[in-house]
């Protein structure tokens, strides 16, 4: 049972570089989310998707873009990385709005 | 918007003792309150949840209580074990679901053998 899988697990970027984080879920869930986790701030929503081909902004979307071309995949892009984007990123999915959300294992990103 | 406060930020208990983590919320429209456990190096995992039409829910050693009038809900872990050591997050959701979720900042629980 894979659940939600994130790639990569760790990454170090230089300021200005770009990268894409991949999230894949095998539960046929409609809803997918990208959160960032910073010390003392809990989880904050970056972007989300309510179905294939749809995306929307969350609480902290600046500097990030997303795409959901296939129902099972949700990609998070950083076009020009900044040190403020150093964080742990979590992808999650849920079948309905107010039910259990399943999280990936996280991606630790450091921007130097 | 919703504001969720979680206390304490750290908690140490002896193995076998009980642990209680409390959260308060501000939005009276919130109607779903999940609790997540995050072990070191892993993603959060749901351990128990409660909906606004229920006052208490139990699952073995874990229980959650909800007081809608006071707008607070609590996680109770009895007979704690070393494997309960982790960070616990509460959350409050309204009809907007995880698009509008507000998480607490987390409680680091340490169970001392």
Report on the architecture of this protein:
The complex is a heterodimer of chains A (112) and B (113). Chain A is mostly beta strands. Helix content of chain A is 0%, strand content 52%. Chain A contains no helices and 11 strands. In chain A, strands 2, 4, 5, 6, 9, 10 and 11 form a 7-stranded mixed beta sheet that branches. In chain A, a hairpin with a 5-residue loop joins strand 7 (64-67) and strand 8. Chain A is globular, with a radius of gyration of 13 Å. Chain A starts with a strand and ends with a strand. The model of chain A has no long low-confidence stretch (mean pLDDT 95). With 113 residues, chain B is mainly beta. Chain B has no helices and 11 strands. Chain B has strands at residues 4-7, 10-14, 19-25, 32-38, 45-51, 56-59, 62-67, 72-77, 86-92, 102-103, 107-112. In chain B, the strands form 2 sheets. In chain B, strands 2, 4, 5, 9, 10 and 11 form a 6-stranded mixed beta sheet that branches. Chain B is globular, with a radius of gyration of 13 Å. In chain B, 34% of the residues are buried. The mean pLDDT of chain B is 94. Chain A binds chain B through residues 4, 31, 33, 40-45, 48, 50, 56, 58, 90, 92, 94, 96-98, 100-106, and chain B through 31-32, 34, 36, 41-46, 49, 51, 89, 93, 95-99, 101, 103-106.
Walk me through the topology.
The complex is a heterodimer of chains A (112) and B (113).
Chain A: E1 4-7, E2 10-13, E3 19-25, E4 31-38, E5 42-49, E6 56-57, E7 64-67, E8 73-78, E9 87-94, E10 102-103, E11 107-111
Parallel strand pairs in A: 2-11
Antiparallel strand pairs in A: 1-3, 3-8, 4-5, 4-9, 5-6, 7-8, 9-10, 9-11
Chain B: E1 4-7, E2 10-14, E3 19-25, E4 32-38, E5 45-51, E6 56-59, E7 62-67, E8 72-77, E9 86-92, E10 102-103, E11 107-112
Parallel strand pairs in B: 2-11
Antiparallel strand pairs in B: 1-3, 3-8, 4-5, 4-9, 6-7, 7-8, 9-10, 9-11
């Amino acid at each position: 049972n894979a659940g939600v899988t994130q790639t990569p697990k760790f990454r170090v970027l230089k300021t200005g570089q770009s990268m894409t984080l991949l999230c894949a879920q095998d539960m046929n869930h409609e809803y997918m989310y990208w959160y960032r986790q910073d010390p003392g701030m809990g989880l904050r929503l970056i972007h989300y998707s309510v179905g294939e081909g749809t995306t929307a902004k969350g609480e902290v979307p600046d500097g990030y873009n997303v795409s959901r071309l296939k129902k099972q995949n949700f990609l998070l892009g950083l076009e020009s990385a900044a040190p403020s984007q150093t964080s742990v990123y979590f992808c999650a999915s849920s079948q309905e709005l107010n039910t259990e959300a399943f999280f990936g294992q996280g991606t630790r990103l450091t921007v130097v | 918007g919703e504001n969720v406060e979680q206390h304490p930020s750290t908690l140490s208990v002896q193995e076998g003792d009980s642990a209680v983590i409390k959260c308060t919320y501000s939005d009276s429209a919130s109607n779903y309150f999940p609790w997540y456990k995050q072990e070191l190096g892993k993603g959060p995992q749901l351990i128990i949840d409660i909906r606004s039409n229920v006052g208490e829910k139990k699952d073995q050693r874990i229980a959650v209580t909800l007081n809608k009038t006071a707008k607070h809900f609590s996680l109770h872990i009895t007979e704690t074990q070393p494997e309960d050591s982790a960070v616990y997050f509460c959350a409050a959701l309204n009809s907007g679901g995880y698009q509008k979720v507000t998480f607490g900042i987390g409680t680091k629980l340490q169970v001392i053998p």
